[in-house]
Amino acid sequence: MASLLQGRLPVNQDLLLMQKGMSMRKVRSKNWKKLRYFRLQDDGMTVWHARQAGGSAKPSFSISDVETVREGHESELLRSLAEEIPLEQGFTVVFHGRRSNLDLVANSVDEARIWMQGLQLLVDFVTSMDQQECPGWLSDWFQRGDKNQDGRMTFQEVQRLLRLMNVEMDQEYAFQLFQTADTSQSGTLEGEEFVQFYKALTKRAEVQEIFENFSADGQKLTLLEFVDFLREEQKEGDHASDLALELIDRYEPSESGKLWHVLSMDGFLSYLCSKDGDIFNPTCRPIYQDMTQPLSHYYINSSHNTYLVGDQLCGQSSVEGYIRALKRGCRCVEVDIWDGPSGEPIVYHGHTLTSRILFKDVVATVAQYAFQTSDYPVILSLENHCSWEQQQIMVQHLTEILGELLLRTTLDGLLPTQLPSPEELRRKILVKGKKLRTLEEDLEEEEEEEELESELEGEQEDEPELEAQFESESQKLSPRSKDKKKEKVGQELLSVQFYLPLYFLLFQKFKPSLCPSLSALVVYLKSVSFHSFTHSREHYRFYEISSFSETKAKSLIKEAGNEFVQHNVWQLSRVYPSGLRTDSSNYNPQELWNAGCQMVAMNVQTAGLEMDIHDGLFRQNGGCGYVLKPDFLRDAQSSFHPERPISPCKAQTLIIQVISGQQLPKVNKTKEGSIVDPLVRVEIFGIRPDTTYQETNYVENNGFNPYWGQTLCFRVLVPELALLRFVVKDYDWKSRHDFVGQYTLPWTCMKQGYRHIHLLSKDGTSLQPASIFVHICTREGLEGDES
C-alpha cells in the first residue's frame, strides 16, 4: 500500500479485495436505498464512494472515525426491511460520537463478510497502533494532501496541505524543510520522508526551552535532573524517583538512553504529549472511588427520553438512543410506554409526532448493552401509560428478556435500612416506577406466601389421613343429617354463583390503574410525588424517589438549598429538562449537582456546553456512570448551602499559564485559504460565586503552533464541586467567535505542572493531534486578585 502505513498494515486478502472496490446498496430509510460503489483507498485509512465504478468519487469515512462494525441483524433499520433485504448480506458501520450509522447491503454473504472483517481489522489496527510511530491522523493528512492519490507529495501539494493544516509559513523556509526531508531527491515526499518533514514542521521551541532549563548540557536529562523536574514542576511528590525510571523506560526512543537512564529531547516531548503528561490525572481514569456506599451518595449518569435521537416533537425514536446512551456510561435510561397495536406496548413521546418502537425491542437492547461499558447497576425509569393488559405484557418482556439481570426483590430478602450500594447491585437492572404498596408490605406478603406454601405442603402430606377421618365421620351421620348438610352446601354454592359476577364487575370498575405484577418489579426505586422536604422526612421512606422539573429544582435550591442537600443524602432525586425544551436542548447540570441531586437527566443526543460539563464529570472513575459526591453532600447533618457556601476554609487559588497550541483544526473547511485566529477561554463551573471565565488574546493567522504565553488566575471557594472547561475559539470581530475545540474535567482530577490538554470536538470525539500546552499551579487559600 503506497502510503505512510506501507509495511505496517497487516497483509490481508479482505483488504486487497476492498481496495479493488465493490458495489453495495446504501440504506437510509425504507424508501431510500441506492446502489453505490465503495472502495478502500490505498492508504488503508479512508473509504471513498461513487455512484458507479470509475465514477467521480468522494470520501465516505475515515477508519479513525469508526467505532465498530455490526452485523445486519443488529441494525434496527435493516431488520425493518427483512422482507426485502437479506440480513446476512447487510452490515452497519458505527461511528464515534453522534454521527449517524451507515447501513450497507452487499451483493452476497461473502462480500458482506469481506467488508465486515476488513473494516474491523483496520479499526483494531488503528486503535492499537503506537501513537508515536505513525498515528492514523498523520496518514489522514497525507491522504488529504496527496491530491492525485499517487502515494507521493509534490511541493505544490505540500503547500496546499499546509493551508489545510492551518499553517501560514514562509515559502522559502517551507521549501527548505521539504528538500531536507526529500532524502531520495525525487522531488516528492513518500511515506517516511513525509514523517520526517512533519517532525521538522512540529519542532517545539517552548518545550526545548523547558528541557534546557533542567538539562545541564542541553542534550539530555539525567535521572536526577528528570526527578527534579517531576518533583518541582509536575508536583509528583515522593514517588518522583520511581516514576522517572518508569517514564524513561516508556518514552525514551533510544535503547542506550534507556540503559543509562537518561531522557533525550524527543523522549521528553513524547512524555509531555502522552497520557502521563496529560492534564487529567491518570489515577482518576480507572475506578478509584469507594463503590460500597448507598446509591444516594453518588451522582448517576442519567438520560432523558432516551429513545429519542432528535427533537421532542417530531424526532425519531430508536433503540440506537439506548445503545449510544449505555455505551457512553449512562446508568439511568428513560422509557415512555403506551398501548400499541396487536397487544404489544410501544415506546414514544406521547401526544407528539415522534416515531414509535416496540417496548420489547427496547428491553432486548438494554439487556444486550447494559453492562458493556460498566458493570454497575442500570436503572429503567418507566413512564407507564398502558392498560392493565399491556402492562402484563410489559412484565412478561421484562422478566423473560432480562432474566437474572432483573432485580425482583431486596438483595437478601430482608427489609433494608438504607439504599444498597453500586457494588452490591453489580450487573443488576432496577425498575423505577410507581408502586401500589410499600416495600414492607411486599416483603410481608412474600413471607406469608412462603408460610402458606409450607402449610399447603404439610396439608398435602396429611390428606389421606384426613380423607379417611372424613369418611368415618360421614358414616356416623343419619340420612336426615346428610340431607341437611347437602342443602346448606347447595345454598352456599348458589350464593357464590350469584355474587361472583358482581365482585368481578366492581373489581373491573374500581381496580387500581397499576397492574400488581408490574408494581412488584419496583423494589428500591418507588416513584412518589414531592410535596415538601418536611413531608418527605415525615412520610417517605429511603427507597422512594421524587422527580423534579429543572425549574422546580432550581427554585427549591434558592428557597431551601440546605434542606435539599440533606434530602439528597438519604433519598434519590431525579431532575429532568423543562417541557419547553422541544428542541432537545439541555440545561446546566452543575447547579443541580451542587445540591447533591443524583440523577440529573440530560438529552444526550444534543451536543454543546451542557453535555461537555456532564461528560466532564463522568469522565472519571472508569467512566462507570457513578461518581461519589463530596463528603459534605453525604452528611445527613450537613450545613452546606449551595447558594450561600460556608467560609472558604478549603478555598484554592488556580494559576494557569496558557503557553501554546498545536495543530488546531480549521473551522471553515470549505475555505482552503482561511487560517484561524485562535484564543483560549478557561471556564470554571461550580457554585455560583466560583462560576466564571477568562480568556487570552487571539493569535492572528496561526492555527498550527500559536503561542500565547499568558497567565490567568482564579479564586475558587469550593474546589470539590468545580469543573474546568478549556475552550479554543476562532476570533471574529464581527460576530460570535467560532468554536474550535474543548476539554472539560473535574478540578479534583487536574494535574499540576506542564500539561497538554487534548481537545475534543463539539460532538465529544477526539480532535487529535489538536492540543493546547499549559502550566497549572494550585495553592491553598485565596491569593491576590483576578487578573
TrEMBL record:
Keywords: Calcium, Cytoplasm, Endoplasmic reticulum, Hydrolase, Lipid degradation, Lipid metabolism, Membrane, Metal-binding, Nucleus, Repeat, Transducer. Residues 518-634 form the PI-PLC Y-box domain. It is a peripheral membrane protein. It catalyses: a 1,2-diacyl-sn-glycero-3-phospho-(1D-myo-inositol-4,5-bisphosphate) + H2O = 1D-myo-inositol 1,4,5-trisphosphate + a 1,2-diacyl-sn-glycerol + H(+); a 1,2-diacyl-sn-glycero-3-phospho-(1D-myo-inositol) + H2O = 1D-myo-inositol 1-phosphate + a 1,2-diacyl-sn-glycerol + H(+). Residues 16-124 form the PH domain. One of its GO terms (biological process) is lipid catabolic process. GO terms for cellular component: endoplasmic reticulum; nucleus; plasma membrane. SUPFAM superfamilies: C2 domain (Calcium/lipid-binding domain, CaLB) (SSF49562), EF-hand (SSF47473), PH domain-like (SSF50729), PLC-like phosphodiesterases (SSF51695). Residues 440-484 are annotated as: Disordered. It is an enzyme of class 3 (hydrolase). The keyword Isomerase does not apply. Residues 133-168, 169-204 form the EF-hand domain. It comes from the Eukaryota. It is found in: Cytoplasm; Endoplasmic reticulum; Membrane; Nucleus. Its cofactor is Ca(2+). Its EC number is 3.1.4.11. Residues 441-470 have a biased composition (Acidic residues). Transmembrane segments: none annotated. GO terms for molecular function: calcium ion binding; phosphatidylinositol-4,5-bisphosphate phospholipase C activity. Hydrolyzes the phosphatidylinositol 4,5-bisphosphate (PIP2) to generate 2 second messenger molecules diacylglycerol (DAG) and inositol 1,4,5-trisphosphate (IP3). DAG mediates the activation of protein kinase C (PKC), while IP3 releases Ca(2+) from intracellular stores. Required for acrosome reaction in sperm during fertilization, probably by acting as an important enzyme for intracellular Ca(2+) mobilization in the zona pellucida-induced acrosome reaction. May play a role in cell growth. Modulates the liver regeneration in cooperation with nuclear PKC. This is Phosphoinositide phospholipase C. It comes from Equus asinus asinus. The gene is PLCD4.
